[in-house]
From TrEMBL, chains A, B:
MF-aspect GO terms: arylsulfatase activity; metal ion binding
Residue intervals of the Sulfatase N-terminal domain: 28-312
Protein name, UniProt field: N-acetylgalactosamine-6-sulfatase
PANTHER family, A to Z: ARYLSULFATASE FAMILY MEMBER, N-ACETYLGALACTOSAMINE-6-SULFATASE
Family (UniProt): Belongs to the sulfatase family.
N-terminal signal peptide: 1-25
Pfam families for the chain: Sulfatase, Sulfatase_C
Keyword list, A-Z: Calcium, Hydrolase, Metal-binding, Signal
Length: 513, 513
């Protein structure tokens, strides 16, 4: 495998703003709520039977649901980025907060970063003016005595560590981190609401295993522990929208709710729901990459609407292909021509952005642009979605080694020739689904049909263009080194939490896919 | 098998009314909208990704969603009742319209009857004052020249036949029957709205294969042909609610929307969606028996609420067990102590009704009564649902003979030891799911857990009580005879559509299960 993780630039391209839609002379505020491993089917408004997300459901009623929005990868980074990862976001990538700064935006990140944790990669070096959160996910990889626990930062200084100072009882699923992240988001809004345009990226990670919620949410969900995390995040959504209303900036703020990939289905109590979709996180089936999407902007986005625009939260992990993908907004390493469009700034002209400005779909949900979205697993182009069609060039469910450990990305699902336990090459005869008719990818379109023949024609064309124009990014996450772990984050001295740094010994990381 | 279809009395027991909740001195009107093979997941408000049911979604926003409402059987009658079936609804069963007549209600049925088609079984002999529709489903069994096509009745006279006078183009899925059924329902409301209380059972069958919609709906759905049927039915829901509003009786009318079983999954374009649930019609998994449920009564039922009350549309197909089941309302052969409660009439005292009056859950959605619901396939008790738990005593997916014909009740699903291709007895060690945590029945609760042990204790008790008190009904659908087919329905003379009746030759029907 040439580079397990591709260049990061492509992931920087997202966001939704539209200057023409804004009625105010000031460019709109942007709040992006990015969940971690929350599934499409976890929202009441997307059919979760227990309906435990009243704030999200109300947000959807007041805004727009994007039904066909894909993540750029079926997992978060797209390789998760543990503490011993050397690389991170390169300086020459222009992130959304850097773009928005041209128009006077103040940008805040609350929650998980995950774009590299060495000092040069941290949020305040990449356009954010404020940060409260952690560079890595709370799942660790370590919560022990031999290696450092994940630090929590306030701006550029560590203010403690998970499991030590910021407690997570991972056995019982209890932590007040979501409460802290919600409070920090509301405080950011309180500070910034009347000062100028702001961008807030709220990226709590309570729905990533081991899931957690505050003590007061224990036992409050019919869905168990995972549901408690969802309920607290839903309450956080309500608190953030309330803060916007309280400052009367709701009519000048675009709020986007989404997730970084499909729900992980490997365990019942630590994973969410992908609704009617096939499989979950790690896979390129609908359950792995179709994300919840709600866009809210009272007075601008028409209430109670749906767009079926096929879109991607980001551009693809392999870039740059101008025609590749329609894009919205999205992940924590966000910027976008769409964002730029809204704020009235130009994206840099020295690079190709393969995303599209789709803001018009927000104000005119019935509009649809026909664009292919390319679905990757690692470096491999697995499938293409375009219009109602989805074509699998390769299929792969759970690696045998994982299955043997009792891990299953597709529990309960078995579609012959599709949920294959090994990477299976279908490029000679791709498998076609109409995922509007068949969102569960259960009924392959017959190879003999006209639809199939036309789809293959289309596919060949767009894949050829994609591959010809593709310039694979520089891999950033290939090298690991124990020495880069959080032994001595800035601020550790004051806390007396500095640890001795071991000898540097870089090695090629071994990423599972 | 002793009697493939059990006595009908039990299915007569449903409906939801509550006298105390009515603010008017006149008892409330009742409209029950009963779909045919429409799945839980076919509604936008239940997460169908294409969101093509704006009227149902609005009805849900203005009313209450019942998330855990079961049908009495995983198919419609619970055996489908073709034309050669001799039996039907016995005279001593008291149907909802007969009960309501005591309070001056006028009752109308628009759509499919399916309670027997010989003259003595037809709707006007069993309490309905008006009927426009057919005694059998439009799927036939016959649309040919050798046996009679299904007649369509207006009150007690045939006014034509499917495929001859009432056209259904089953190859292209085109028919205006839903439009006719909607018009007839609206006309019934127009006639009755200002005359006294009325009961309307609207039972169109366009979502039963072969599905159909009016010409003007062709090509209007992202979901294909099935979606066109849903869209037209959704428009019908809107037209009916509009008629209630126009006559200003919406505040004195309970409207219930539900279906007769889960969506049939045997084909992509002729079947619907069961959302996150396992399998479909014919099975006792959630996909086979969890039905959509919306209750609408402006001013009485609180808007935008959900009840998780475990309930059954009807009492069980094997009766009478007083404690057996919480019940709502439902099918075309409807009556109920709940209905009686609302209208202020007593159910007959000479028989045991195994349903419960659950009307309080409509006005107080947070209330929940802990009652087991027993899930049967044919005569066999397959599973029990109580609270969040569901216990499978037997499992059975698709019979091998059907699989060999390419028919699959569980396409894409494979839960080891659960979606068994033959009836599999688990009574020695039942399989337990928490279907609130795990609506897809994918993660069996460990046999070693406390939850499991407690559930088995509970199960043994309720099953024992159920079986002790159970008095199996008299089978009504065992005998078949070509002579009882629709050769000469009343009214055929005027239409010149009478056919010669063959010699009577009764035989035991052979029902697939």
């Amino acid at each position: 495998m040439k580079g397990v993780v591709l260049g990061l630039r492509a992931w920087l391209v997202a966001g939704v703003l539209i200057a023409t839609a804004s009625t105010s002379s000031q460019p709109p505020n942007v709040v992006i709520m990015l969940m971690d491993d929350m599934g499409w089917g976890d929202l009441g408004c997307n059919g979760e039977p227990n309906r435990e997300t009243p704030n999200l459901d109300q947000m959807a009623r007041e805004g727009l649901i994007a039904s066909s929005m894909y993540t750029a990868a079926p997992l978060c980074s797209p390789s998760y980025t543990p503490q011993n990862m050397v690389g991170g976001i390169p300086d020459d990538e222009v992130l959304l907060p850097e773009l928005l700064a041209q128009k006077g935006y103040t940008s805040g990140l609350v929650g998980k970063w995950h774009l590299g944790h060495q000092p040069q990669y941290l949020p305040l070096k990449h356009g954010f003016d404020f940060w409260f959160g952690a560079p890595n996910c709370h799942f660790g990889p370590y919560a022990d005595l031999l290696t450092p626990n994940i630090p929590v930062f306030l701006n550029d200084s560590m203010v403690g560590r998970y499991y030590e100072d910021f407690h997570i009882d991972k056995n019982n699923g209890v932590s007040n981190m979501t409460q802290l992240f919600t409070d920090a988001a509301v405080e950011f809004i309180n500070r910034e609401a009347n000062r100028g345009p702001f961008f807030l990226l709220w990226a709590p990670d309570a729905t990533h295993a081991p899931t957690y919620a505050s003590e007061k949410y224990r036992g409050t969900s019919r869905r168990g522990r995972y549901g408690e995390a969802v309920r607290e995040l839903d309450a956080g959504v309500g608190a953030i929208l309330d803060a916007l209303r309280a400052h009367q900036v709701d009519n000048n703020t675009l709020v986007v709710f989404t997730s970084d990939n499909g729900a992980a289905l490997v365990s019942k109590y630590n994973g969410g729901s992908n609704g009617p979709f096939l499989c979950g996180k790690q896979t390129t089936f609908e359950g792995g990459m179709r994300a919840p999407g709600i866009f809210w902007w009272p007075g601008v986005i028409p209430a109670g609407t749906t767009t079926h625009q096929v879109s991607s939260e980001n551009t693809q992990p392999s870039q740059p292909y101008e025609e590749a993908v329609a894009e919205w907004c999205g992940r924590r390493w966000i910027c976008s021509r769409t964002a730029a469009q809204l704020a009235g700034v130009q994206t840099p002209q020295d690079r190709i952005y393969d995303g599209l400005a789709l803001a018009k779909s927000l104000t005119h949900p019935q509009l649809e642009v026909q664009r292919p979205v390319f679905l990757y697993r690692g470096n491999r182009l697995m499938a293409v979605r375009r219009g109602p069609l989805k074509i699998h060039l390769w299929t792969f469910s759970t690696p045998t080694a994982e299955l043997q450990k009792g891990i299953n990305f597709c529990p309960g699902a078995e579609v012959p020739n599709v949920t294959t336990p090994t990477p299976t090459n279908h490029t000679a005869r791709p498998i076609l689904f109409n995922v509007e008719v068949d969102p569960g990818e259960r009924y392959p379109v017959s190879h003999l049909s006209r639809t199939y023949k036309d789809a293959i024609q289309m596919l060949k064309k767009v894949v050829k263009e994609h591959e010809e124009k593709l310039v694979p990014g520089e891999p950033q996450l290939n090298w690991c080194d124990q020495a880069v772990m959080h032994w001595r984050p800035h601020g550790c001295e004051a806390l007396k939490e500095c640890l001795p740094i071991p000898q540097s010994n870089p090695y090629l990381c071994d990423w599972p896919h």
